[in-house]
Amino acid sequence: MVTAEAPLPPLPYATPPDWAAAMVPDLGTLLLDQAHLEKKAAAGALAFLFRVPGGADVQRALSALAREELVHFERTLRLLAQRGLPFAPLQPGRYAERLKAAVRSTMPHRLADELLVAAIIEARSCERMAAMAAALRAVDAEAAAFYGELGEAEARHEALYVQLAALLLPADALAARWRELGAHEAAVLAVLPRQPRLHSGTGSGA
Question: Which CATH number fits domain 24-84+98-191: 3.30.930.10, 1.25.40.390, 1.20.1260.10, 3.40.50.150?
Answer without folding.
Answer: 1.20.1260.10
